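User: Can you predict the 3D structure for this chain?
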Amino acid sequence: GVSKERGVYGSRFRAKHNVDGRQVCYGYFGTAVEAAVAYARAVGEYQPPAHPSPAVAAEAEGLRLHLSSSRATGYKGVQQCPSGRFQAGHRVDGRRVCYGTFDTAVEAAVAYARAVGEAPGQAEVAAAAAARAAEAQAVEAAKAVRVAKAEQLRQLQQLREQKRRLQEQKPLLEEQRRRAAIEDQRRLFEEVETHAHAHAHAHTRIAHPRA
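Assistant: Here is the predicted structure, written as structure tokens:
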């Protein structure tokens, strides 16, 4: 499943396999061992080393590494190649940018951290969470201010509408008061006139008594 190929870049080793009469290529490698490991992985004959893989390190070479529970390697941006080595990469505008291939996942994780920046520490994570909480509170406070201003505007509009209605009713009220005053004067005049007639009638009876 391994053959040596010559090209413009020198000799490379190709891992391949025939499936249903069709040749499937598993890649080109710098050494025959890497190509053989890739072939063994593909056809299911690969046996991992007896010694366990090292534990995932949170820091290395003075950098905080980007840990990932969803990655088999334990690190964000690090994947294991068919050769058994580890590649560090990152997607930029939908295109994967490779930062190199390394013997260990930690070395690849260090290269990833150097390229994109080290992972934030606990203090930075807490500060970022506090900043997000403060931003959310500021948004809620601004929303409350907008609601209060809208309510004040609504009340002001109601007062203006009441004032406008009073201005419209003012001539009618003045006319009603004028008519009421005229009616009061008419009643007063009638009462005075009635009183005068009664007084005159009484005076006439006193001046001319019956025989």
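The beta strands are 2-7, 10-19, 22-29, 59-60, 63-64, 78-80, 86-92, 95-102. DSSP finds three helices and eight strands in the chain.
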